[in-house]
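Case study B.
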Amino acid sequence: MPLTLSEVNRMTADEFVRALGRVFEHSPWIAERAFAARPFASVGALHAAMAEAVRRAQLMLPRAHPELAGKQAQAGTLTRDSTAEQAAAGLGALTPDELRRVAELNRRYREKFGFPFIIAVRRHSKDRIFRELERRLGLAPEAELANGLEQVFVITRLRLEGSIAE
Amino acid sequence: MPLTLSEVNRMTADEFVRALGRVFEHSPWIAERAFAARPFASVGALHAAMAEAVRRAQLMLPRAHPELAGKQAQAGTLTRDSTAEQAAAGLGALTPDELRRVAELNRRYREKFGFPFIIAVRRHSKDRIFRELERRLGLAPEAELANGLEQVFVITRLRLEGSIAE
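Model:
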């Protein structure tokens, strides 16, 4: 006695998770998050909403990073670490032309990959950062996600080394 | 006034997360999980513990899957879906030789990749499943993680299609 899609679309959150929380083994959080995307036009659309919940979880770490010279930098809402790092690389003093260029590259990058461009700015000059942004914009999504995560690990290693004496 | 490593090693969980929760942007859960690995012999060891917390989170989904014809299957502790799927592929009736062979392949696979071999068993015969397990055992870890996740999506799609009528 399978459920029907219209029954699924009428379920409360609790009923939905009870009925479908087991679809991904031992991972009811996926159904919990997919519930918000109701109503589902097809079983495929329901599965796509669950897959999107997984994808968002995978991108959580790179998505937590701010854009370089982006809105947060201009509004002064970067974390203390990011502020110091971006300033040290000269990103706090871009010309209006450079700001427009980086805003456009940031926009294209986020549109393509779903997370911001991440680079250990302390290790690179401003010009090198721009070149890397353009180069990595051309890479395949899987490869670039790996690059982004690798840079997160470089950045966090430098932060630890800068704040703890052995 | 940087911290010293011995100060870090003496911190309570709260102090540790307050001091280091910001190292990964907006992701204090990483420091929370790394705390259990104290004491740290070096800043590098501390960073490795944080990286391991991230890696575990990335592997959460494939790790939630059971082994094929593994301990859970033999103990009868598989989820209802997995039980039906493994039985349909003939994995519930392996010879003692086949059981030994799959146990050895499963062991090598998990040792290499850190998660169990995952395949949409409904789509494959027993022989084909064995061949795939041997083939994928030879792949690179990054590629195989992508394969494992892809199979999770095939399996869950089949489960949804089998339990909801449009």
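The first helix of chain B runs from residue 5 to 10. The remaining cases will be described in the next quarterly update.
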